[in-house]
Amino acid sequence: MKFIIATNNPKKLIExxxxxxxxxxxxxxxxxxxxxxxDVEENGTTFTENSFLKADAACRKTGxxxxxxxxxxxxxxxxxxxxxxxxxxxxxxxxxxxxxxLILEKLRDVEREKRGAHxxxxxxxxxxxxxxxxxxxxxxGEIALEPSGNGxxxxxxxxxxxxxxxxxxxxxxxxxxxxxxxSLRMLQSELTKYLEENNAYK
Length: 202
Description:
Helix content is 32%, strand content 22%. It is α/β, with parallel strands linked by helices.
């Protein structure tokens, strides 16, 4: 069973592949199928809206079921920012290191007990017949005082879960508790039910 993963983030693709493979899903990008996806304007106001825009465009372009994740980090002391703007919070071409440095600078004078934050992962799966599945997973923690670890990507080195940076987690440890791990487990449950009811995609 082949699904298009609508992402240009190679690290996100690896994470999605790792969790989808046990479902019997072959996760491929449009590029791997020799198809170039059009740029999608992520003009939604929520993670879920943006994930749908990406998945729907990929499904229409390829004719295959498509999965898209829109995710980010919401920081209490910044009134929920960067939120849906997480990827471009420090500028369109900024590195993960630059994004993390900007967050730490903005929280420089914020004490530990007020550095609460949570990750969000909204996943939409769109089928060629127009059906869709949408789920959202979260993971609550806090922002560290400094980066730690070389694992993960994005804001992982400064996101603390139960006192440890996601950057210090192994991939397996992260999958068990992360926002994306949580949303993909929900997707697994919903996909299983959907595929049992719709033989066309088995």
